[in-house]
Known about the structure:
- This is (wild Malaysian banana) hypothetical protein.
- By secondary structure, the protein is mainly β.
- The protein is 11% helix and 30% strand.
- The protein has one helix at 17-30; strands at residues 40-41, 62-63, 79-80, 83-98, 101-115.
- A three-stranded antiparallel beta sheet has the order 3-4-5, with helices on one face. A two-stranded parallel ribbon has the order 1-2.
- A hairpin with a 2-residue loop joins strand 4 (83-98) and strand 5 (101-115).
- It is globular, with a radius of gyration of 16 Å.
Amino acid sequence: MEPIDLVPSGYRFLPTAEELLVDYLANWVAGAPLPGRAVAFADVYGTEPWNLLGSDRQEGYFFAERKPKNSGGSRVDRKAGSGSWTLYKKQETVKSMVGGREMVVGERAAFLSTMVGGRTPGGR
């Protein structure tokens, strides 16, 4: 898979979790065009994590389908190439105003890629 260069050099994409869910994911689900190319669709499980981004990028935003560990199970298989995705921060609920009421629209989670042996690609 070719590295994805979604945001021009010199710019930084810093959306809130609510913006990602309401402006990007909801548009995709509804079949509406996404605003810009800052969020990509990627096979985060079948690609080495360091190959997802361009050489000068250290973070990115991707839509990916969840991959269950077994059929019908609720646990997620987070294997990725020669490593895995590890939950980096506790999951938080994301709320938004919908029809004049504040409602939960999703959950936010941050992941860190770890290689076999428990080390991150940077050696930490």
